[in-house]
Amino acid sequence: MALYLYNTLGRTLQEFKPITHGKVGMYACGPTVYTFAHIGNLRTFIFEDILRRTMEHLGYEVTHVMNITDVGHLTDDADQGEDKMTRSAREKKMSVWEIAEFYTQAFLNDMKELNLNSPTVICKATDHIDDMIELIKKLEKKGYTYRAGGNIYFDVERFPDYGKLALLDKQELKAGARIQVDEYKRNPRDFVLWFTRSKFDHQAMMWDSPWGRGYPGWHIECSAMSMKYLGEQFDIHCGAIDLVPVHHTNEIAQSEAATGKKWVNYWVHGEFLLMGEDKMAKSAGNFITLKDLKEEGFDPLDYRYFCLGGHYRVQLQFSREALKAARAARLHLTERVKEIRERTSPSELSEIGEKGKSYIDSFRGNLSHDLNIPRCLSDLWGVVKDVELSDAEKLAIILDMDRVLGLRMEEAKREELDEAQLQLIRDREEARRRKDFVRADAMREELKKQGIILEDTPDGTRWKKIE
Ligand code: AMP
Ligand code: ZN
After folding, report:
1. Whose CA is nearest to atom 3 of ligand 1?
2. Ligand 1 in contact with 43 (CB < 6 A)?
């Protein structure tokens, strides 16, 4: 089945055609590790996990590369502000290296708890300084750079395609009408590739380079690492929508200037998580972490389920009420899957009939149409509630769909009851058949004391352990 993705480059829905048959190279901009990721950041990583799982579901072999931005970079995209890592280190009385390591581990733990498949390659910026230096040297040799005020800048006017992703206005670019924030820039859009003159005192992370001791700009790290692991041309680059105008625009400029080739074919961007009317942002201080949600009693998968309820290209408003609704739905789903599994003998063959196949087709169709996960969730619920499908069919289809949704349905299993408890349930059913309700009720009470509650349904008695 053909996969259609909305490509920011061109602003259209396009059929996905990989560079190499059956394979996908995908790069995702990773976290900046000077503090905990917030749940807005995590929405983006959940979307990327779904994208990768979708492609795998459709039969592609995916190489998923994600970086860790552990080089201190600056508080805004325009190369100014205070170094975030340095500030965090000062506040927490730790070294910048310790800060980076601590928050990297915290992020990897969040990923695990959200059931995000680990990227094929996770690369730290600080381990790839040499690759960045090589790339800057290449750009320098081709005449795309200039040195001013001790820093090496990328000269955007040397790159005619600059701004094609963000549809930047060429006139405006030429006029340089914006407020000049850095007196050394020839054009306000120019950006730093290598800093030797930090604007900050006590710059802690520094490396030797042909231009002097210093540190790389933010954008160069993603170009250098993605090309190292995926080659000079690859299929998909993703991130959230805020990266389009500066970070991804600059990544394209420096990568294509260095190689002389088109760099990435599909740019796939996720929309924001909002807190009220505003984007959840570290700088705005209106953020919540996964740890906060856990402390409030939520399971990380409740948040995953909540995110699946919104299309990745639509803004999603966070609220406790909506998260509670997601939790209720997820728990209900888990309970239903446990019941289905309980009624399915492990040896039962799951021959999927026409009705079952129609759900699978619908699910794949929704996935392939630019990852319509809210509709995929409806397909899943359709299977759960369908009265014509056998339990074995249902279980097989649900587990297959969950390979994309990642709600850990494979773990939705009942705790086993012991033989005495099962016998008590059977005896009670027998008593009910004899209409000996006094005895049946006494047995129900006995089971309740053992932490088991019963529900009588037209299909027989179901049991549940009290949590
Ligand atoms: P950062 O750690 O700040 O570099 O951000 C990591 C990822 O989260 C990037 O792809 C950002 O674009 C993305 N991001 C930041 N804020 C939000 C938000 N409110 N909703 C969704 N994604 C976000
Ligand atoms: Zn990046």
Report:
1. 32
2. yes
The architecture in CATH of the region 320-411 reads Up-down Bundle (1.20)
Q: How far is the CA of 28 from the centre of ligand 2 (A)?
A: 7
pLDDT for 401: 98
- From the centroid of its chain, how far is CA 401? 18
Question: Are residues 128 and 228 in contact, defined by beta-carbon separation less than 8 angstroms?
Answer: yes
Pocket of ligand 1 contains residue 38 by CB under 6 Å: no
pLDDT tens by residue, 188-247: 899 999 999 876 666 778 999 999 999 999 899 999 999 999 999 999 999 999 999 999
- Beta carbon of 72 within 6 Å of any ligand 1 atom: no
Q: In Å, what is the CA distance from 291 to each residue of 34, 303, 321, 383?
A: 16, 12, 18, 33
Instruction: State the distance from the centre of ligand 2 to the C-alpha of 250, rounded, in angstroms.
Output: 10
- Which ligand gives the minimal distance to the CA of 280? 1
Q: Over the stretch 436-451, which tens digit does the pLDDT of each residue have?
A: 999 999 999 999 999 8
Closest C-alpha to 205, from 54, 314, 89, 68: 89
- The phi and psi torsions of 453 (rounded to 5 degrees) equal -110, 150
Domain 4-270 has CATH 3.40.50.450: no
Nearest ligand 1 atom to alpha carbon 238: 10
